[in-house]
Amino acid sequence: MKTLGIDLAADPKKTAAAVLDWTPDTARLTHLSLGVTDEDIVELFAASDATGVDCPVGWPQALLPFLTGHLNRDAGSVLKHDGIVGRRLLAYRDCDRFVTSITGLIPLSVSADRLAHPAMRCAVIQAKIAQEHGYQPRDGSDRLMEVYPAASLKLWNVEARKYKGKGTGESEIRHVILKQLEEMAPWLDLGAHWDALVASDDMLDSLIASLTARATLIGATLRPGDEHLEAARQEGWIHLPSGPLGDLLVR
């Protein structure tokens, strides 16, 4: 089994990819790269059993009727979202609220934050994958699933506060994160990639995304229940680990 993790940015220069090759005894990091293009992602997707992408794969269901109403001067459709509560339905998806309820973390808004730009690129990548390999459901029930590395680390009880950035302090925190991963998952073989993972939070997030893709593939993530199923199909679903990191190899 091979799992691919993508830390997707609007600019390929900040986009990272990590491939883990799983055997009964080990999970070996066989590919780690930064500066990943759309074409690279489609090619890596084709060679992997599951791909976890750290980026929203959809938008809130309420957003399109709101924008269409504004475009068509339909005051009723717009006024449904008057006030902060109404606007939150435009900014956050059902799965975002679910993540907050489970982890306490608040995902960035795909429609009202800088995350919107990478999400536009992600939509194009999904279309490119669909052309070559078939449509991938947004709920992550096939080979492409949305993941959230910070939430995965928290649920795996990995201490990972303030690990993003280029400073010495952030690099030291990433070093500590890798040491924790080694202790919890002694079967994880990072090979010669340790220094690169310490140097780049993008690369580290792609590794966590690849680990979470494995969790999704073996049924070790939280799936949408009946109350979330329709929204997950339309908006996407963030897959959160439902068990210990160390158990990923034994399934």
Main sheet, how many strands, which sense, barrel? 6 strands, mixed
| Helical percentage | 40-55%
Q: How are strands sequenced across the largest beta sheet?
A: 5-4-1-2-3-6
Q: How many whole angstroms does the radius of gyration measure?
A: 18 Å
Number of DSSP strands?
6
Overall structural domain count? 2
Distance between the termini: 12 Å
Summarize model confidence as the mean pLDDT.
Answer: 96
Taken as a percent bin, the fraction of beta residues is 5-15%
**Residue runs with pLDDT of under 50 for 5 or more positions:** none
Structural class: alpha/beta
What is the gist of this entry?
The protein is an alpha/beta fold and 251 residues long. It is built from eleven helices and six strands.
Tell me what the structure shows.
- The structure is a single chain.
- The chain is an alpha/beta fold.
- The chain folds into 2 domains: 212 residues; 33 residues, no CATH class.
- 47% of the residues lie in helices and 12% in strands.
- The chain has a 6-stranded mixed sheet with strand order 5-4-1-2-3-6.
- A hairpin with a 4-residue loop joins strand 2 and strand 3.
- Helix 7 packs across helix 10.
- The longest helix has 18 residues.
- The radius of gyration is 18 Å and the shape is globular.
- The termini are close together.
- 41% of the residues are buried.
Layout of secondary structure:
Layout: E1 2-7, E2 16-22, E3 27-34, H1 38-46, E4 50-54, H2 63-71, H3 75-79, H4 83-91, H5 94-103, H6 116-133, E5 144-146, H7 149-155, H8 168-184, E6 188-189, H9 194-199, H10 201-217, H11 226-235
Parallel strand pairs: 1-4, 3-6, 4-5
Antiparallel strand pairs: 1-2, 2-3
Helix pairs in contact: 1-6, 7-10
